[in-house]
Amino acid sequence: MDELGFPGRHHLAAAEGWLGLGDDQEAERELAKLEPSAQAHPSVLEVQWRLHSGRGAWKLALRAARRLVEAAPERPSGWIHQSYCLHELRRTGEAFEALQSVVGRFPRECVIPYNLACYACQLGDLDAARRWLEQAVQVGGRAMIRQMALDDQDLAPLKGFVEGL
């Protein structure tokens, strides 16, 4: 057993490497070599999410994200991934509700209010979207959030507001 608490950590590292090289098939083969007990480790679930989301397999990605939330609710990434999958599955209302329910747990995570801004905008609540975007700016900094928002089609209805950030 290694420092992450499961044998075969090198397979996870190899899977991450293959994903970085753009070879999702080899990444999947490496993940399959992990023992069943390792499959539920948060680091493995993160890589599974990356694999499935990279393929646009949103139902599988959602399953990995939900397992990540269960295994490591203290990690904001699971909550963010879960909501993103819901949004991609055209379940934006659910995405918004799920992420809004944990915003207070992760006050230093700018992606959460940013994504809430995107979801609110897509749901037609532009006032809420502006408020969430302003909160994201407070946490993540004006330059970074503005650049992300300028390139984000989910925020297109707020183009003038974003340009003024």
Which helices and strands appear, and what pairs or packs with what?
Blueprint: H1 9-20, H2 24-32, H3 42-55, H4 58-71, H5 76-88, H6 92-100, H7 111-122, H8 126-140, H9 142-150, H10 159-163
Helix pairs in contact: 1-2, 1-3, 2-3, 3-4, 4-5, 5-6, 5-7, 6-7, 7-8, 8-9
Describe this structure in a few short sentences.
With 165 residues, the chain is mainly alpha-helical.
Describe this entry's structure for a reader:
The chain has a domain at 108-165. It is 68% helix and 0% strand. With 165 residues, the protein is mainly α. The radius of gyration is 17 Å and the shape is elongated.
Strand content: under 5%
N-C termini distance: 49 Å
Radius of gyration: 17 Å
Biggest sheet details: none
Question: Helix segment count?
Answer: 10
* Structural class category: mainly alpha
Number of β-strand runs: 0
Indicate the overall shape: elongated
Stretches where pLDDT falls below 50 for ≥5 residues? none
Q: Averaging pLDDT over every residue, what do you get?
A: 93
What is the element string, with H for helices and E for strands? HHHHHHHHHH
Helix content: 55-70%
